[in-house]
């Protein structure tokens, strides 16, 4: 009884109450824009516009975030005639979260099936729940891309000071998950639209005290930093991989900087191991700054 009351206090009386209904989705390819229209029997509608630069999602009352698994609707953009599918949808009472799958037959939509797509309204309570779900069960490497999409599609929610630290923590877990993936070569770079990450295996047989690493380029920016990572913290560790991340934008870090602006690319270094905040040897980063008449390097 105590547990039930606690769940009601946290999530509300109808938090776990879902409804099943039929609907359909229509896909149309209109001049470099993939359009998806989701229509449910109850009259709830969701529209998605996928362009080369961004994805826009709108439900009946709010902007929204959408992610799909398995057959990604946004991967095949070569069709010309509209496509229409019958779907089974699972939604909460307020229509702020809808999960749907392709309907394979004429049966009622009450079966527990694996969701093909999840649509969540850009509301703090729904985004926080989704972030907590990803924190508990991370799908690597796809969830890193999903988190970056969520940040762009629900900016006002993610960048709010009550939410941004939660987002940064889950993004950090996703970054660590990518770092922990098997990397057969000495280094591997992952490119996304607004961040790039290089995962490097530290060569502990080196006689030097530092390993030199180039920060990955993001988008078309050629101004990358060089850094020297001290090898001493890795000598007695079973894990010897680090991730060097370059961000194209710094919006979700600004809240911790007061009224200051960051004009360089944000560089983040992650080591999925014991706390290395207290380094005896300095981490060195060399980057370029622009003056009126020339560029110089600063360490």
Supply the key terms.
4-stranded antiparallel sheet; alpha+beta; 5 helices; 3 domains; 299 residues; 8-stranded antiparallel sheet; elongated; disordered N terminus
User: Structurally, how many domains make up the residues?
Assistant: 3
SSE ordering? HEEEEEEEEHHHHEEEEEEEE
Structural class: alpha+beta
Beta content comes to: 25-35%
Rounded mean pLDDT is 79
Largest sheet: 8 strands, antiparallel
The total count of strands amounts to: 16
Shape: elongated
Tally of separate helices: 5
Q: Separation of termini?
A: 60 Å
Helix content: 10-25%
Q: C-alpha Rg, in Å?
A: 23 Å
Q: Pick out the low-confidence regions.
A: 1-15
**Strand arrangement across the biggest beta sheet:** 4-3-2-1-6-7-8-5
């Amino acid at each position: 009884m105590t547990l039930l009351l606690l769940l009601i206090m946290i999530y509300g009386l109808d938090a776990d109450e879902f409804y099943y209904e039929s609907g359909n989705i229509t896909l149309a390819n209109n001049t470099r824009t993939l359009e998806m229209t989701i229509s449910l029997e109850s009259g709830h509608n969701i529209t998605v516009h996928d362009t080369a630069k961004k994805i826009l999602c709108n439900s009946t009352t709010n902007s929204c975030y959408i992610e799909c698994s398995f057959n990604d609707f946004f991967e095949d953009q070569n069709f010309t005639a509209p496509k229409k599918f019958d779907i089974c949808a699972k939604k909460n009472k307020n229509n702020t979260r809808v999960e749907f799958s392709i309907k394979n037959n004429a049966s009622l939509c009450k079966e527990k099936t694996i969701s093909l797509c999840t649509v969540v309204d850009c509301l703090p309570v729904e985004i926080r729940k989704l972030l907590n779900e990803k924190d508990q069960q991370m799908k690597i490497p796809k969830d890193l891309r999903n988190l970056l999409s969520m940040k762009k599609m629900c900016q006002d929610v993610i960048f709010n000071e009550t939410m941004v630290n939660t987002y940064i923590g889950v993004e950090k877990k996703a970054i660590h998950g990518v770092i922990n993936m098997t990397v057969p070569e000495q280094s591997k770079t992952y490119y996304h639209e607004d961040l790039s990450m290089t995962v490097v295996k530290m060569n502990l047989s080196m006689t030097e005290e530092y390993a030199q690493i180039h920060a990955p380029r993001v988008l078309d920016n050629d101004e990358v930093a060089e850094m020297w990572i001290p090898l001493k913290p890795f000598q007695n560790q079973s894990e010897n991989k680090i991730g060097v991340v370059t961000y194209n934008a710094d919006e979700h870090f600004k809240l911790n900087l007061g009224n200051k602006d960051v004009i360089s690319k944000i560089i983040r270094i992650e080591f999925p191991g014991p706390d290395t905040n207290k380094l005896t040897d300095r981490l060195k980063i060399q980057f370029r700054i622009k003056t009126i008449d020339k560029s110089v390097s600063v360490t």
